[in-house]
Amino acid sequence: EYMLLSRHQNARQNHDITVENGCFENVAQFRYLGTTMTNQNLIQEEINGRLNSGNACYHSVQNLLSFRLLSKNIKIRIYKTIILPVVLYGCETWSLTLREEHRVFENRSFPSIIRTIKSRRMRWAAHVARMGEKINAYRILMGKPEGKRPLGRQRHRWVNNIKRDLRDIGWDDMDWIDLPQDRDQWRLL
């Protein structure tokens, strides 16, 4: 299988590629390392898949969570060690708009799940910021695509989430690349 990412509508037509005796099918989405990727680069499919997987995990341990002899603390530990990691796998790289945060996670989980996502995203941002310009992850996140942007609203980027998270906690005057260089100050943040 292969997937083509393009802004042009005609580029998304289904054209299979044949090489020697093998045929590669053009697909609109596929799973790679447990993550759903789409040719529209929409995170919504991934989030819905994660929530469905979390619901499946919840239903598999529902008997334990409804067992009266287990304390509330043990049930919370079960939730945090079994269900939450399934739901939040890869959340560090999610680029969420405020609308997506409210629409997707409302009434489905603890109110602190958004705070957990932001915390993990900030931890990843600090890690990437300390990598330096020669590492591919840094260059990809900081890179500016060449060419003209298509008409319409600008796409929400991952860096926008980092800047918004810093603004929410009152650190919007600081550069998110310079701030994590001091690990102690970053951890306090």
From TrEMBL:
What domain of life is recorded for the organism? Eukaryota
| Name assigned to this protein | Reverse transcriptase domain-containing protein
